[in-house]
Amino acid sequence: VRATTHMTAHGGAAVGTAGLVAAAGSGQRLGQGPKAFVELAGRTLLEWAVGALAGHVDEIVVAVPAEHVELLERAMQSVRVVAGGATRQETVARMAAATSAGIVLVHDAARPFLDGATVRACLEAAREHRACTVAAAVADTILDIERGEVVDRRRLRAVQTPQCFERALLLEAHAAATADGVEATDDAALVRRLGRHVALVAGGPHLFKITTAIDLELARAYAERRPVAGSAA
Amino acid sequence: VRATTHMTAHGGAAVGTAGLVAAAGSGQRLGQGPKAFVELAGRTLLEWAVGALAGHVDEIVVAVPAEHVELLERAMQSVRVVAGGATRQETVARMAAATSAGIVLVHDAARPFLDGATVRACLEAAREHRACTVAAAVADTILDIERGEVVDRRRLRAVQTPQCFERALLLEAHAAATADGVEATDDAALVRRLGRHVALVAGGPHLFKITTAIDLELARAYAERRPVAGSAA
To answer: In a mutagenesis test of the B interface, which of A108, A142, A200 is the best target, namely the one with the most B β-carbons within 10 Å?
Structure first.
């Protein structure tokens, strides 16, 4: 990863790439406190995310619930810690504002099994296309209960994270969404709203999101059989 | 379960309910031979399915690749074995024709973690509504790549199995599909084509389908931590 070295508004050296870890969720559906601190095979979900990004990006920014920022700043010296916002969208905007990197990669801490090959593919796609998201084929038949009909799943993709953007484009998308009062569950949707193309990077079932207790149980079982995710592909 | 006892065309006593296990797939994407014989925590996927249904239905019919029918007939005396068709739809039609049960429950062997509570809920819903399918909320954001937009996932459900029907209705739906040259990935879709209501029974992530090698890895890890699925809820 080549870092750009011009001076930033804050006077520091700008970095080329930053990983933004959204870990400010309350974990309400999981019911085990803030999701970022849920333990999985000896590490918190936050540590899984930071571990998966370390070595791939120049800087890591994590957003956690406001009341935990101070403690985490002391505990995790290698990352920049910010307080999450009221929504995921606001949380990402805060992280994007906290870095001066040209390229930012947004990842949900609730998807612990991020691999290095996916991170590299996303950074590359963002350099080439300005915006990308990881997306996976949909295995189940999907029913539209409003229309009462099955949707052709060949035209569907499950949107996952990471999503990776030129930071300027991500900031522009967030500003437009805020101005228009739009809330989305992912950042690629906000970029698409601007009429910009978002490239798709092949994800997979290992990038599933931990939402419910059974998801966590699956993840724990899986984590204990699998080598710990890190910078290896 | 109350069995009806009128005589069938074959001269035998009719049974009330039958579990139809679709296990004739080639398992091409998994790459480990016929999927039904893939091992998961000491039992084949076929055994998982049969074990989950035993005690809940009056009869179990399994469809396997044609070349394995004879051996399985000898090995599994408690179930009726039929040869799968060229498509899943044809396979289900053959199983439905091989039983005289009034209510049939169709299940994919590729979804091993079927629990008794779900089986009971499906049988009950089929008695009340004539047709039902298990369906789960969609956790990921779903992108429609043809329209280039996100689909509101609140209106989407991931269709799973079991699906449970009055057998006469299922046969009617299959006959209509065959007459119209329609192929569907699930039987509820065929019933819906007739303009009939299909009730939804709450499924969940544990009913995920094993399609790829990583799905199998997840399932193995999960199976080894979880009590073996059986007739317990």
So the answer is: A142
